[in-house]
Amino acid sequence: MFKMKKATYTMLDGSKRTIEYDENAPCILCGKPVIEVSMAGPTICPWCDSGCPRPEVAIIMSQKFLARRK
Ligand SMILES: [Zn+2]
Question: Nearest CA to 27 among 57, 65, 1, 3?
């Protein structure tokens, strides 16, 4: 059964705001499921938000890098 995840943000004025999001919704930057909300909201995955490649992307990048050195 489809279930929305919930996340609570603390606003600048200290108030809390809970949002519901779909963990399988694609990230607007990398197109993969967001899994968790980032500080930028539920439309951008935490990896894109922090500028870090996702673990699976980092592995592919390092393999390409090693292949180039041969
Ligand atoms: Zn992303």
Answer: 57
CA–centroid distance, residue 70 to ligand 1 (Å): 30
pLDDT in tens, 51-64: 887 877 778 878 88
Tokens for 45?
């995955």
Span from the CA of 32 to the centroid of ligand 1 (angstroms)? 6
Question: So what's the pLDDT on residue 57?
Answer: 75
Surrounding ion ligand 1 within 5 Å at CB are 27, 29-30, 45, 48
- CA gap 68, 40 in Å, rounded: 35
From the centroid of its chain, how far is CA 19?
16
pLDDT > 90 fraction of the chain, expressed in percent and rounded: 46
